[in-house]
Amino acid sequence: MKLSGWGRFPNVDCTVRVARSEVDVRAAVAASPLIARGNGRAYGDAALNRGLTLDMTGMDRMLSFEDGVLVAEAGVLLGDIIHTFLPRGWFPMVTPGTKYVSLGGAIAADVHGKNHHLDGSFRSCVDWVDLMGPDGAVTRVTREDDLFDWTLGGMGLTGVILRAQIRLRAVETSFIAQETRALTSLTDTLEAFEDTLDALYSVAWIDCSDGPHHGHSLLLLGRHATPGDLPKRQKPLEVKRRAKLPVPFGAPPFLFRGLWLRALNGIYWRRGAKRAGHTIVDWDSYFYPLDALANWNRLYGRNGFLQFQCALPLETAADGLAALMAEIAASQSGSVLSVLKRFGPQSGHFSFPMPGYTLALDFPANERSLALMERLDAITLAHKGRFYLAKDARMPEAVVKADARAEAFAAMRTQMGLRDRFASEQSERLGL
To answer: Of 32-46, 101-115, 172-186, 270-284, which range is least confident?
Structure first.
C-alpha cells in the first residue's frame, strides 16, 4: 500500500503488517527487515520500509498506573494518556506539538517540548523500555544501559519498542496561565527567551518572511494554572474534547510566496499583539493548536510539504538564525508556521536537542523548496548545528554524517547486528 509520513512526502509503496501482540512482533522480526511505525506523525520517511512496515497501533493498551507512573504499550497515543489521566491530575512531563504521537514514536524520536530548557526531552520521563532485538528476544533497557541512550532518539533502529514505563507530572488544573509578548526583531526575541529561562514553558512563533531585522514574533510563556487562577465556576480538571475544523485539500500555492506570505504573517502578528498579556487557556489550545485542524497536513496540497528543523548551539545561534532568516526572506518562500524554541542541556547518544535554539519551518514539497533547504543545510553546518530526523524527508547522507554522532550510531548498529533487521527508507538514505 502507498504510505507516507505526516508531510505526505515521500509517498512509498510499502508492505504493512499490523502487530497486536508480542508474538506478532517476533514473527515479523523473523520474517523480514522492518521498521516499526506508530501513528505516522514522523514527517518524512523515518517510519517507512518498502519491505515491511510494522504498524504498532494495535498494541495500545495501558497496563498499570500508580502515583503518576504509567506502564503502557508502544501504540498508545499521548492524547489517550491525557484524556485518561489529566482528569485525575496528571499530565505528560514532556510533550511535542501534537497529542497524536504514539508512545513508541515519542521514545524513538526522543521528542521535545516547550520545556526542554528546564526538563529536557522525552527521555527525562522514561524509566525503562522493553525492546525486541534482532533475534526476537525482549530486553528491558533502563537508564543505566548504554542501549537506553541509543534507543531514545534512535528512530526505531535499535529494535522494536514494545512497552515502556514513564512518569507523569502532577498538575492541579487542566489550564495554562499564559503570557504573550509581542516582539519586533530576532534580537529582541532571543533576549526575551534568555530573560525568561525560569518559565516552565516557552515557545515563539517568528516571522521569517521579512528577514531577521523585521522578524516579528509572539513569545508564549506558560505554567500550569492553579485553582486560584481560574474563574470561580470553572472545574479545575475539566477535560473537553475539541471539535476539529476541516481543512480543504490544498491552499492556493501563492499564499506561501512573497507578498502574500508577508501579508499573512503580518496579520497573524498584529492579531497576536492585540492579545498580548496574561490569560488563562486550556491545555489543548496551548500545547496542540494545530491538532484543532483535521488533517492540517493537507494545507500544502497533494504534493505534501517538507519541514526544515535545525538546532544551533548557543555560541552561534544569533548569527546562524539571522543567516537562515535572511536566506528564507530572499527566497520569498516559506510558511506561516515558523517556530523557535530554547533548548537546554543535551542528553542521550543520538538525540536531537543541544544547548541553544531550534527553528522549525514548513515549505511546500517542490524543487524550489528543496534547493532552498540545501542552502539552509549549509548555513546550519557552518554554524555547527544539527538536524531533527523526525522531521527529515530529504537530507543527503553527507549532511547528517557531518554530525560525528551519526557515524558512531551506524557503527553501533553494525556491531550489534541491528542493520540487517531494522531499517527505514530514511536510514538507508542516510547510511545509518
So the answer is: 270-284
With 90 as the cut, is the pLDDT of residue 351 above it? yes
Pairwise CA distance, residues 28 & 168, whole Å: 32
Residues 271-307: pLDDT tens digits?
A: 888 889 999 999 999 999 989 887 888 888 888 999 9
User: What residue has cell string 534507543?
Assistant: 151
pLDDT digits (tens, 9 = 90+) for 80-132: 999 999 999 999 999 999 999 999 999 999 999 999 999 999 999 999 999 99
Alpha-carbon span 332 to 260, nearest angstrom: 10
**Rounded to an integer, what distance in angstroms lies between the CA atom of residue 242 and that of residue 284?**
8
Asked if residue 85 lies in contact with residue 71, where contact means CB atoms within 8 angstroms, the answer is: no
Q: Tell me: pLDDT of 258 over 90.
A: no
The answer to whether 15 and 52 have CB atoms below 8 angstroms apart is yes
Does an H or E element contain 272, and which? helix 258-274
**Residue 172 CB neighbours (<10 A):** 15
* Residue 432 · residue 413 · CB < 8 Å: yes
Write out the DSSP string of 157-180. Answer: -SSEEEEEEEEEEE-S-SEEEEEE
102 DSSP β-pair partners: 77
Question: Rounded CA gap, 252 and 321, in Å?
Answer: 28
Q: Please name every residue paired with 13 in a beta bridge, in sequence order, or none if there are none.
A: 2
- According to the model, what pLDDT value does residue 252 have? 62
- What is the reported pTM? 0.95
Nearest to 230 by CA among 169, 181, 279: 279
Gap between the Cα atoms of 261 and 290, Å rounded: 19
DSSP 3-state of 86:
helix
Beta-strand pair 69-73/160-170? antiparallel
* pLDDT given at position 292: 87
Distance, in Å, from the CA atom of 325 to the CA atom of 285, rounded to the nearest integer, reads: 27
User: What would the grid cell of residue 115 be?
Assistant: 520545556
How far is residue 164's CA from residue 75's CA, in Å, rounded to a whole number? 11
Phi and psi, residue 180, nearest 5°: -110, 130
Kindly tell me the sign of the dihedral angle through the C-alpha atoms of 81, 82, 86, 91: positive
Which of 224-240 are b and which e, b meaning 16 or more Cβ less than 10 Å from the residue's Cβ?
bbeeebbeeeeebeebe
